[in-house]
Amino acid sequence: MSVIDRIKETVESKPIVLFMKGTPQFPMCGFSSRTVQALKAAGVENMATVNVLEDPEVRANLPRFSNWPTFPQLFIKGELIGGCDIVTELYESGELTRLVAEAQSA
Q1: Separation between Cα atoms, residue 13 and residue 1, nearest integer Å
Q2: Which of 101, 96, 103 is nearest to 38 (CA)?
Q3: Cβ contacts of 94 within 8 Å, gap of 6 or more
Q4: Which superfamily does CATH assign the domain made up of 3-105 to?
């Protein structure tokens, strides 16, 4: 299975997926940390995470798959939501809480 197929399968098989540097417990960059905090504040109970520092193939190919150059990258219901700034803005507007609730109830 190609790395692009692995990424696609991960994104399509889980309602909420965060590709990040580090783990939710030990984020390895400030952007990943802030994104995890926003998701937790929005009520995420269960999300899949992929530590791109542990998988260089995913780290190299995810920007091509998503057409988004930076990390972290949040996908909800198979759709790219964006990175830290977008996730933070969505949280502040209340939209992230709605997206998370819909994804978790599906």
Answers
A1: 15
A2: 96
A3: none
A4: Glutaredoxin (3.40.30.10)
Sign of CA dihedral 62, 68, 70, 72: negative
Model pTM score: 0.96
CA angle 101, 54, 104 (to 5 degrees): 10
Q: Are strands 79-82 and 73-76 parallel, antiparallel or unpaired?
A: antiparallel
Write out the chain's pLDDT in tens, 106 residues. 999 999 999 999 999 999 999 999 999 999 999 999 999 999 999 999 999 999 999 999 999 999 999 999 999 999 999 999 999 999 999 999 999 999 998 7
- Kindly list the distances between the CA atom of residue 83 and the CA atoms of 1, 2, 22, 60, 80, in Å, as whole numbers in the listed order: 26, 24, 15, 16, 9
Rounded CA gap, 19 and 31, in Å? 12
Q: Rounded distance, CA 105 to CA 82, Å?
A: 21
Cα 22 off chain centre by: 12
